[in-house]
Amino acid sequence: MPKGSKRTRLFNQFSFTTALILGACLASNAGGAFAQSNVAPNVVADGGNAEKGFDMAPETRLAVVEAAVAQIPTPLAPGPFQPTWDSLQKNYRVPQWFNEAKFGLFMHWGLYSVPAHHNEWYEKHMYGGDQKWHVENFGPQDKFGYKDFIPLFTQEKFDPEVWADLFKKSGARFIVPSAQHHDNFAMWDSKVTPFNAKALGPKRDLIGELAAAVRARGLKFGVSNHGIENFQFINPSAALSADLKAKQADLYDPKWADFYNVADRSDAACERFLVNWYERNVELIDKYQPDMLWFDNGVDQRYLDPIKLQLAAHYYNRARQWGKEVSLSTKKAAYAPSNRNTETIGSIIDFEKIGSRSPSGIRTGAWQVDEPIGSTWGYTSDMRITGAASIISKLVDTVSRNGTLLLNLSPKADGTFPEEQQKTLLEIGRWLDINGEAIYGTHNWHTFGSGGKGEKGPNVRFTVKGDVLYAIVLGEWTGGEVLITPLALTPAMVGKINKVTILGSQVGDVAFLHDFFGLKVKLPANAPGPYAYTLKITGLHMNPSTATVDGNPQ
């Protein structure tokens, strides 16, 4: 608004007292310009490991885990990290690249995409409650077990260069494919397990090929390992178990005993399993230098701490040797000995699915949420794919709360992505080409936004970079004017808005009025793009970065 304009003169006629009263009312009713949002108690999603049950972890004891650690053949990589909480806390730092990335791609990539039925837990279902479908489509389990999907997992059309190009165009800054899911099949060239993609199935080092292609495009590359869940993942029905055991078939075939981990679940077997789990992770670390090593719920239990600490120390010492910033990423309180995930040590907290478990408000520090692009995590033939509008809304909302979105993809058994998934990714990428300035390298404002879910006014989310405030308005372009009420003028506001532009618009500076009711912006006739648009606001003094060294909330 030009200095000395008629609107400015009228505005200056308001008394300071009126400003105080109106500012206080708006701060109270609209969330305020500088107050933390008044949200539900789980504003920081302070969930721990208090839940009953083993949560996919091996049902064992601390003594068994300690015995396994004593048998680990790989020496700990030398360096400052020792397998203790104190050492981890003293030496760990959240990678700067993660604080800036804000958008990554996850991937459920494995044998379960061959049957493409139910979900990525097909192995569990085919021996449990969904035996009939498997028999009708593939034959009885003693003739066709889960192991028999391995030769059908050909990945004959897998082209890592094509995949990496797609990922780059999506606007993602880091990629985390599943190196191993609950089913115990390793997607890399392994020397510590015969059940791997180089020796069987596609006969290719899938992880190695993809890592090279992704990094060639300047993206970070991590891996997820869900393998610790395998030890008790399969729980066959009593009748099926008796039949297979009598026939020494499939689950009870000695040649496949270490693949299924059903026939022997003794303490000694658990020790061997844990040592092998450790060795697989060390192989992934030493061979592929992952920028992130992501674990699922199975590592959450406290009795697993000795082996988790040993692995963390090895990983971080290796990273020091490589000169790289890396991090573990885990759920709940896996790396929080206090059992509070706001006191995590040496790991970036990950929440599964937006809304159900992720923070309902702003959580400072470092965190991410993994969200599926469709109705299942692994590829299924009838999965429903989420469109770009919804994913962009989730990305913006997550970043406004200071989080990072890890969007899960579901490739097919032939090594391709269905067209619908590609379309969503490319549309997200085109949106980020215009609006990425308001996403990458940003942090939260004092309030994450307003509107949405039946509230009046535009659905807007805020991000900050330096002294620039971004107001991202979600939804289709309306034209006319937009009023951003959380920016109501108050005496507490430091600075004065001097310019508003719209990212991607060719119009340049746009007219605006900043008063007690908010920031009213005159929109040009044409939208810069679909789904959401971004107001770039300068002149106000913004809050500093809310990143923390350890990743925990301030």
Helix content: 25-40%
Oligomer: single chain
CATH architecture of the largest domain: Alpha-Beta Barrel
CATH fold description of the largest domain: TIM Barrel
What's the N-to-C terminus distance? 37 Å
Q: Strand percentage, roughly?
A: 15-25%
What does this structure look like?
Strand 2, helix 9 and strand 3 (220-221) form a beta-alpha-beta unit. The protein has two domains: 6-30 and 443-540, Golgi alpha-mannosidase II (Immunoglobulin-like, Sandwich); 62-438, Alpha-Beta Barrel (TIM Barrel), CATH 3.20.20. The two termini are 37 Å apart. It is built from 15 helices and 17 strands. It has an eight-stranded parallel beta barrel. Strands 10-11-12-17-14 form a five-stranded antiparallel β-sheet, with helices on one face. Helix content is 30%, strand content 17%. By secondary structure, it is an alpha/beta fold. Helix 3 (62-71) crosses helix 12 (267-288) and helix 12 (267-288) runs parallel beside helix 13 (305-322).
In short:
The chain has 554 residues and is of the alpha/beta class. Helix content is 30%, strand content 17%. An 8-stranded parallel β-barrel has the order 1-2-4-5-6-7-8-9. Strands 10-11-12-17-14 form a 5-stranded antiparallel β-sheet, with helices on one face. It has a 3-stranded antiparallel β-sheet with strand order 13-16-15, with no helix packed on it.
